[in-house]
Amino acid sequence: xxxxxxxxxxxxxxxxxxxxxxxxxxxxxxxxxxxxxxxxxxxxxxxxxxxxxxxxxxxxxxxxxxxxxxxxxxxxxxxxxxxxxxxxxxxxxxxxxxxxxxxxxxxxxxxxxxxxxxxxxxxxxxxxxxxxxxxxxxxxxxxxxxxxxxxxxxxxxxxxxxxxxxxxxxxxxxxxxxxxxxxxxxxxxxxxxxxxxxxxxxxxxxxxxxxxxxxxxxxxxxxxxxxxxxxxxxxxxxxxxxxxxxxxxxxxxxxxxxxxxxxxxxxxxxxxxxxxxxxxxxxxxxxxxxxxxxxxxxxxxxxxxxxxxxxxxxxxxxxxxxxxxxxxxxxxxxxxxxxxxxxxxxxxxxxxxxxxxxxx
Length: 360
Ligand code: ADP
Ligand code: MG
Hints:
- It is found in: Cell membrane.
- Belongs to the ABC transporter superfamily. Carbohydrate uptake transporter-1 (CUT1) (TC 3.A.1.1) family.
- This protein has 360 residues and is of the alpha+beta class.
- Helix content is 24%, strand content 34%.
- The strands form four sheets. Strands 6-7-8-3-9-10 form a six-stranded mixed beta sheet, with helices on both faces. A five-stranded antiparallel beta sheet has the order 13-12-11-14-20.
- α3 packs across α4 (139-151).
- The longest helix is centred in the middle third of the chain and has 18 residues, at 169-186.
- The site of magnesium ion has 2 residues, from α1.
């Protein structure tokens, strides 16, 4: 179970003036961890609420396990929603909070309900807290209680809307791993919404990148990172952001080069075959494909800042009027240097056309 398909889903507000999402086509397998990621306001929550039945789409269909559920009420959908804010009942014990949705179900025996609550508590490591009130729990434990509340419903899929956004960074990292483990154990589909590209990369089996109401790309974390469909995806995924430099294609008898205000980069055969003389392209390359040398690189740059990231350093450079970033192994580039020669691994570069679509 848990195979969810969105077909051309569109949702507008204010009589059509605000297009929250449009032409959303996503196919999710049962047991898959799908992350919707994109900047604030891009339509993630609206898309998730359409799946949940909390919004009615203006167009398109939502199909779960082959059944069109577009017209079905939220409570009749076999899906559990975990909200951004942790909405526990303060006067109820953890046990009652977890059991809350189950109590609405008349077709389950008392023993079955107890069994489900205890099993969820065990999975979530909440056995010791069952008789406490939410206020006596840490933020992470409270978020696990809200997960438990969804788990006991044994839904075909979980829908989670930025469930960790209220947690501090350490706890968020911990909860990511916990949720991923739980999902592996339950083998239930999860649709997880976040604006955080790093969270998306660490959690998703499949990542759906959205911008401005439209799906930009769907793929595995590696596909999204290595083969971005367009300039937006390239820029949004990965930190530090990739270098994106506007260039003009120059084709001469001696070959093809990409000319920018600060350098001329020779094209690879594949790149050369995809462009025309005089064309404007954006040359994109991730920071890890730039390396610093004493000389012999493709251009020189001023070394502005060396930012330690742990095992690696982010190097911030300026060449001409262009800011660039590189990532190098820890300590490889001395902070004392003013100028470096930069070599790029040109076969790892992307080319985007004037509309931002990737051509190589
Ligand atoms: P995200 O979750 O990616 O931040 P949302 O789905 O919440 O984005 O919002 C997408 C767009 O739709 C935004 O422009 C937002 O202001 C608008 N929107 C969302 N819900 C409503 C609503 N109930 N009424 C009017 N506009 C809305
Ligand atoms: Mg949202």
